[in-house]
Specification:
The structure holds two protein chains of two kinds. Chain A is of the alpha/beta class. Chain A has 15 helices and 14 strands. Chain A has a six-stranded mixed β-sheet with strand order 3-4-14-9-10-13, sandwiched between helices. In chain A, strands 7-6-5-8 form a four-stranded parallel β-sheet, with helices on both faces. Chain B has one domain: TIM Barrel, CATH 3.20.20. The chains are: A alpha/beta, B alpha/beta.
């Protein structure tokens, strides 16, 4: 059986449906509705039309020649999900789930967000489809991503800062789930990553699989061969699963996920879930997670709000265990260096999340030399991160008017 | 035989079960609170383990358990509490826990420790029977109750799964929501209790139905006991402890227990 054909509920020993009884009926309904939609050509056609006419698909494949030259000559190609409407890959999944929610007769979207990219995409789809929208966002993240909070509110969404727990992405998911238990008759929970109970991991992956399908064809057309490695950042892991999926059965193509190492993978402040975590159940599925000896979830840390998550999608856990994909840490400092290099050398400012993938590619390019060809998922753009990067590089004048 | 089910039978099907978070307000304060429930006429105690990601808990219980975790609570402390309460009283003590801590401990190791300290069983809000094979085996081995949830949204087929897997009682979720006091009980609670009555009769399973979520007054207890064998109350007890310590808790216990004496239909 091809790796591409594995569709859950389990991926090896991971995944499954680990939900409270009150939500089991909604999860069952969602799984059935998704399978029906997947078989319905009209659903696929509408989603493809939205991709072309609203998102701007297919996204470009851009060769980063000056960046290549700076790291020894390996060819580096960027899959430009940053050029999508709303600024990241997140819109692919959101449009799919919003269409599905309409089929289910739901009138309201509930979602969590970390960096705010998924929240912005969800608020956008709610505006497009005329649905109500509530976004839960950790209070820490509302502070470091204030611009995205404003964007969501301008789009008509209600943004609820979450003040419980670590006040980041995992707590936003808990609060979103609490909302969903109360409102399940009218609301769809729009999970933003390849985590959660079945069918979310496979459904979200399917909606993002076009990233890898396009990139694979573009590589053959523009470069004439498949890459030696595909690199993507991994928080929950949605952009990574999206770009990996088309290559799963290309055994010669290495798949490399970059986890956020914060202050360093050997410190206590990181989000290296696969590299440093252990198997457990969090947010409805079994996967690797950061936890203590009592099974309490440990706080993660990353400069990137979108990777600041102590869990990871179950398909990644499985790909790691069977040796199909590799997962490596990238620290805050390495990611910010890559952010600067890509910005200065190519005029492309990546999201700090995506900068982790760029850092991984720069490291691998130096190791493999000029014959290598690397494909990088540039999952989002860095507009939202200008304040964070400005502080990191100390380029914001104190007292200057920001306008 | 289930000690919990025996205690519910001894209450003549008018059971009152109280939730208290382990370690709250501190280790000794939690023991004292458990004793107050036992002396105040409660039928069983549901001792909740503080957990980092309590997706079904409302704000009152979240605040209590978060504070307890912040002071460094460890699960072993809950076992010590159960040992002391079961030494001093005969009230069954059930542990309410989200599933990951049990998985992390190891299901059989956790069950063995619970049995060793005299615990009666587990209430598992985010474990459905389909994922509970290891736990069901461990509960049988250690003679522990296993209490799964039935919800207003559960299909009849799912109610059957829950009834067949449960021992002690069925946790009958009154409303689609999180824990916390509500002014009015949802009519969904009575509907679900009636559906469970139909299903347990059809299956020939003798298992009490205890209704939980949103019950905060003696009048609500009396109302629930008009159509179910037990009422479960939690946030009202935690709020009393928070606002007025053991003294306020004993007043609240008396008010709630009075609800078991009123016949209401």
């Amino acid at each position: 059986m091809n790796l591409r054909d594995v569709r859950g509920p389990e991926f090896g020993e991971y995944g499954g449906i680990h939900m409270p009884e009150p939500l089991m009926a909604a999860i069952d309904e969602l799984a059935v509705a998704y399978e029906e939609a997947r078989q319905d050509p009209a659903f696929g056609e509408e989603l493809a039309r939205l991709g072309r006419e609203y998102t701007g698909r297919p996204s470009l494949l851009t060769e980063a020649k000056r960046l290549s030259a700076s790291v020894g000559g390996a060819r580096i190609l960027l899959k430009r999900e940053d050029l999508n409407h709303t600024g990241s890959h997140k819109i692919n999944n959101v449009l799919g789930q919003a269409l599905l929610a309409q089929r289910l007769g739901k009138t309201r979207l509930v979602a969590e967000t970390g960096a705010g990219q998924h929240g912005v995409a969800t608020a956008t789809a709610a505006a497009l489809f005329g649905m109500e929208c509530t976004i839960y966002m950790g209070e820490v993240d509302t502070e470091r991503q204030a611009l995205n909070v404003a964007r969501m509110r301008l789009l008509g969404a209600e943004v609820v800062p979450v003040t419980t727990g670590a006040r980041t992405l995992k707590d936003a998911i808990n609060e979103g789930m609490r909302d969903w238990v109360r409102t399940v008759d009218t609301s769809h929970y729009l999970m933003g990553t390849v985590a959660g109970p079945h069918p979310y991991p496979v459904m979200v992956r399917d909606f993002h699989a076009q990233i890898g399908e396009e990139a694979r064809a573009q590589m053959l057309e523009q470069v004439g061969r498949l890459p030696d490695a595909v690199l993507a950042c991994v928080g929950g892991g949605s952009n990574a699963m999206g770009i990996f999926h088309a290559f799963l059965d290309d055994a010669d193509v290495r798949l490399i996920g970059l986890e956020a190492a914060g202050d360093g993978a050997d410190t206590e402040r990181h989000a290296v879930t696969i590299g440093r975590g252990t198997p457990g159940v969090l947010h409805g599925s079994r996967s690797y997670m950061l936890q203590d000896a009592d099974g309490q979830t440990r706080d993660s840390h990353s400069i990137s709000a979108g990777l600041d998550y102590p869990g990871v999608g179950p398909e990644h856990a499985w790909l790691h265990d069977i040796g199909r994909a590799e997962y490596e840490p990238v620290s805050d400092a390495e990611a910010m260096d890559a952010f600067r290099e890509l910005t200065r050398l190519e005029g492309i400012m990546p999201a700090i999340e995506s900068a982790h993938a760029v850092a991984g590619a720069m490291r691998l390019a130096r190791e493999l030399g000029p014959d290598a060809v690397l494909l990088v998922s540039l999952s989002g753009r860095g507009d939202k991160d200008v304040a964070t990067a400005g502080q990191w590089f100390d380029v914001i004048d104190e007292g200057a008017t920001q306008s | 035989m289930s000690r919990t089910q025996q205690a519910i039978a001894a209450s003549n099907g008018r059971a009152l079960i109280g939730y208290l978070p382990a370690g709250y307000p501190d280790q000794q304060g939690c023991v004292d609170a458990c004793i107050a429930l036992a002396e105040g006429g409660f039928t069983a105690i549901e001792l909740g383990l503080p957990y980092s990601d309590p997706s079904l808990d409302g704000p009152v219980i979240q605040a209590a358990t978060q504070g307890t975790l912040d002071r460094g609570f460890r699960i072993e402390e809950a076992f010590e509490t159960i040992a002391e309460v079961t030494r001093r009283t005969s009230i069954p003590v059930l542990v309410m826990t989200y599933w990951n801590p049990v998985l992390r401990w190891g299901v059989d190791r956790f069950a063995a420790r619970l049995a060793e300290v005299g615990g009666a069983g587990l209430i598992t809000p985010d474990l459905v029977p389909e994922n509970g094979t290891d736990w069901i085996a461990a509960a049988d081995h250690h003679d522990l109750d296993r209490i799964f949830l039935a919800a207003p949204s559960s299909s009849d087929a799912r109610l059957d799964v829950v009834l067949q897997a449960s021992r002690g009682f069925v946790y009958t979720v009154s409303t689609m929501g999180t824990t916390g006091a509500r002014g009015e009980m949802d009519s969904a609670a009575r509907t679900l209790a009636d559906r469970l009555e139909t299903r347990r009769t059809a299956l020939g399973i003798d298992l009490p139905r205890c209704v939980g979520l949103g019950i905060s007054t003696g009048a609500q207890v009396a109302d629930v006991l008009g159509y179910a064998e037990g009422a479960i109350t939690g946030s009202a007890l935690v709020a009393a402890l928070r606002d007025g310590g053991q003294e306020r808790l004993r007043e609240r216990v008396a008010d709630l227990a009075a609800g078991t004496l009123v016949q209401s239909h």
